[in-house]
Amino acid sequence: MTVNDIREKYLQFYKSRGHTVIPSASLVPQNDPTTLFTGSGMQPLVPYLLGEPHPKGVRLVNSQKCFRAEDIDEVGDNRHTTFFEMLGNWSLGDYFKEEQLPFVFEFLTKDIGIDASRLYVTAFIGDEANNVPRDTESAEIWQRLFSERGIDAEIRDVGSEADGYRLGMRGGRIFYYNAKKNWWSRAGVPENMPAGEPGGPDSEVFYDFGTPHDAKYGPECHPNCDCGRFMEIGNSVFMQYIKQADGSFALLPKQNVDFGGGLERIAAAERGDSDVFKTDVFWDVIELLEKFSGKEYADSRYKRSFRIVADHMRAAVFMLADGVRPSNTERGYVLRRLLRRASQHVQKIGIAAEKTEDSMLVRAAIILIEKYKQAYSELEGETAYQDITSEIWKEELQFARTLESGMREFEKLSDGPITAESAYMLFTTYGFPFEMTQELAIERGLSVDSAGFYERMKTHQELSRAGAEQKFKGGLADHSEKTTRLHTAHHLLLKALQIVLGPHVKQRGSNITSERLRIDFSHGEKMTKEQIADVERIVNERIQDALPVVRSTLPKEEAEMLGAEHEFGAKYPDMVSVYSVGPIAASQENPLFTDAYSIEFCGGPHVSNTKEIGTDGVFKIQKEEAVASGIRRIKAVIA
Is 493 exposed, middle or buried (0-12, 13-18, 19+ CB in 10 A)? Predict the structure, then answer.
């Protein structure tokens, strides 16, 4: 089956069982400054898993675009990818384990046709210290499901991953692991969870490719072994507990199901081949590279480069479609790194481009757009095609100039060993890939302080991570009071900008923490002091007006007809959550928005009345600046 086949079968399977298909959220998270990219299927649904009613009901299904930057350096083996699709189904207080696990088993074995005897599963062993019981219910359900297929399913205790390498399979099919492997909460294991945090056990499904165990990972093999024999293809999270103030756990009044299944991994299991890069979405790109390079994917000297180009170009195409552009900061830096790494590895397999039509990166992008455009409308149309391919070629040309300047600097160092400091300087100052430094050094018989370089990079990453954590401290995801107040002030600010500057002003991005709000908006000129003062005055007047802030749920088309603001490039479901700010309260039965100050698509949280925004001070703009052509940025506080 193709990846498109499996995705469609999954969506139809759950749709026929009462689930509503919801669109994938953007790779750029909305109202979540704690992370650069959407990295899981449940991430956009956290408010609903925590209790907020979803406008589409209690049974949901989708395929979510995901990206994990931490996996960039792992790409090159047979299973790691940066971009992936996460098949997800959710029950929001509706069905639970007794329905979910048979759903998963039936879909994998009947609809996809995976041999049930190749499947192995795990469950939560329990946590005596926190008085959380063993998940015997999941294990018993799995045992029954396998038995119905004539498969003996012995249950074995494992505990930790290290225990698995010591104990091995022991004829088991269902394995109990500890909280590090089979427990989910946003805070990790139970002891790390704060009071009020929900969490619960999960049950993972693994496919056995039957390859020999590699003893370098440990004496014995087990489902969570890293040797490559087993691949996790799905995980059902049962969010059933909430941590109490005294440290104990109580059952949630509504118990939720959150399933995530790696689409590409399921495709690999369906084929019975552990190499995800042999699935159709990657293989078409790899065949392109084979044709123009004269190299073969099977050649171990080039396999890693083929995989890196195929993975990185797919991720880049989806990032560009969601509005990310190459730059030296945040998301733009990640995209730039993907494109430059892909360019480097295209050259490594012997392909050079002097014009757009010769570019393997552009050709790969075209293949990927054609492969995915039917499932993802943001890839459809001539404008999307032109935007994506032109940005790729522009970055490819810029990287060629970077390599030229980097080569000049490298030549200055070629009289002796390449120190960690020199390699780090080439990478950070000239954008010269470390892999290229290593290869050139080998050609010239020079040594490279690789360990020192990686230590410098580790320190750099730790400092960057610490800076990001500080930057996003108290981010919107925590729903704190200060963040909520600033989030509502953000609505007032956008409308004030439209009043002062004109109706052309549209939101182009936002970032809200407990310390300040930030909005990016379309406007071609620097704001004057008078305009800034006018905007501040309007926002503060609306705060003092004590306007009601009301949430309504209504069809997307109706909200658009009412002029509700929404972020450029963001995708929304058929039914949307809309917040109106005074003076007439709206309701789902009687959405009277005509006299509202502002109306926006938004998922919350917000204060219930604007007077709550200014309890400790007044709204103040701290900074107004340009961030891109035609895009301005404001940072503001309640001071």
Answer: buried
Q: Chain-centre distance of CA 559, in angstroms?
A: 27
DSSP 108: I
Tokens of 421: 């400091």
> Taking a C-beta distance cutoff of 8 angstroms, is the pair 239, 200 a contact?
yes
Report how far residue 155's alpha carbon sits from residue 336's, in angstroms, rounded to the nearest whole number: 48
At 293-330, the pLDDT tens digits run 999 999 999 999 999 999 999 999 999 999 899 887 78
Cα distances (angstroms) measured from residue 93 to each of 88, 136, 252, 257, 603: 16, 21, 10, 8, 19
**pLDDT per residue as tens digits for the range 215-258:** 999 999 999 999 999 999 999 999 999 999 999 999 988 899 99
Q: Is the pLDDT of residue 467 over 70?
A: no
Which stretch of 87-91, 104-108, 561-565 has the lowest confidence by average pLDDT? 561-565
Closest CA to 158 of 126, 129, 193: 126
Instruction: Answer whether 142's CB lies under 8 Å from 174's CB.
Output: yes
Which structure tokens are listed for 289?
């590279």
- Around Cβ 299, how many Cβ atoms within 10 Å? 11
The DSSP string of 118-154 is GEEEEEE--BGGGTBPP-HHHHHHHHHHHHHTT----
Rounded Cα–Cα distance for residues 264 and 278 (Å): 10
DSSP-based three-state secondary structure for 552: strand
Q: Are strands 549-555 and 575-581 parallel, antiparallel or unpaired?
A: antiparallel
Q: Which helix (H) or strand (E) holds 410?
A: helix 382-413
Taking only Cα atoms into account, the Rg of the chain, rounded to an integer number of angstroms, comes to 26
Q: In this structure, what token pair is assigned to residue 59?
A: 């049974």
- Identity of the amino acid at 250: A
Q: Where are the domains of the chain?
A: 3-276, 284-411, 414-472, 476-638
Intra-chain end-to-end CA distance of the chain, in Å: 58
- Residue 530 amino acid letter: E
CB 523 within 8 A of CB 554: no
For the domain bounded by 3-276, which CATH number is listed?
3.30.930.10
Per DSSP, the residues of 32-59 read -TT-SS--SSSGGGHHHHTTPPPTT-SE
> Within 13 Å, how many C-alpha atoms sit on residue 196's CB side?
3
* Concatenated DSSP letters of 262-326: EHHHHHHHHHT-S-GGGSHHHHHHHHHHHHHH---TTSTTTHHHHHHHHHHHHHHHHHHHTT---
Torsion sign across C-alpha atoms 553, 556, 558, 559: positive
**Amino acid present at 46:** V
CB 279 within 8 A of CB 3: yes
pTM of the complete model: 0.74
Average pLDDT across the chain, whole number? 88
Q: Could you tell me which CATH number the domain at 476-638 has?
A: 3.30.980.10
Of the ranges 45-54, 229-238, 330-339, 466-475, which one carries the lowest mean pLDDT score?
A: 466-475
Tokens 């170009």 locate to 313
Q: How far, in whole angstroms, is CA 246 from its chain's centroid?
A: 34
Q: Are 137 and 124 in contact (CB under 8 A)?
A: no
CA distance 514 to 625: 21
